[in-house]
Amino acid sequence: MEAYTSFAQVYDLFMDNVPYEEWSRYIIGLMKEYGICDGTVLDLGCGTGKITRLLKKAGYDMIGVDNSPEMLEIAAETGYQEMPEDEILYLLQDMRELELYGSVRAVVSICDSMNYLLEETDLLSLFYRVNEYLDPDGIFIFDLNTVYKYRELLGETTIAENREEGSFIWDNYFDEEEQINEYDLTLFIREEEGLYRRFEETHYQRAYELETVKHLLEQAGLEFVAAYDAFTREPVKEDSERIYVIARSNQET
């Protein structure tokens, strides 16, 4: 679970092609379909807080949880610069051991945060925690990279990008038997004196079949509601690269 240390410094730089505003509109649309138009929303694996801040601007009271202090530091600093009067509560926590002060109307988690949970028991623990803190009518929305994406698109590939501020080399290896994708990330980050310092990180993500996810949700007391091909309302396809899953609290009012 330890990741995004050195990479946190340049995460937003290399993720500037991600359409966060489009993603936030999609998430807001899903929440509103289930009556979540206001109230407190938890962003799990919030990273540098891009989605957290967009949901805050849309009128939700936001809590961001991440296990990277470096990412949360950037989230807090950027949030203060953008919205100095609109405080967001950021919590440094392992999502498997989530602890909140009260319940929330919705939980959202994007950018493959669930894939970083490498064991079914990890995913189950997280689902139990989410169900514990969701309001009785609460909704849980999260995305997942698919087996298809790891096997056909990422596995055994190298991705590289070179910019003046920094560069990266990203090697991928997918173990189909274990369903684990290993990311070996080499970073060259520019420092004040114009030199570049090299950093290395290794990340691991696991692919989960949708049926496994459904079973674990139900085991944790959550009701599986729907799964979509990402950013659509279309059913999951064999070649879906990312899917969105919607679950609902089964607690009684």
Outline the structure in words.
This protein folds into 2 domains: 7-145 and 209-249, Rossmann fold, CATH 3.40.50.150; 149-206, S-adenosyl-L-methionine-dependent methyltransferases (N-terminal domain of TfIIb, Single Sheet). The model is unreliable at 1-6 (pLDDT under 50). The longest helix is centred in the first third of the chain and has 14 residues, at 20-33. Helix 5 (120-133) packs across helix 7 (210-219). The protein contains 7 helices and 11 strands. Strands 3-2-1-4-5-11-10 form a 7-stranded mixed beta sheet, sandwiched between helices. Helix 4 links the parallel strand 2 and strand 3. The protein starts with 10 loop residues before the first helix and ends with a strand. The chain is α/β, with parallel strands linked by helices and 253 residues long.
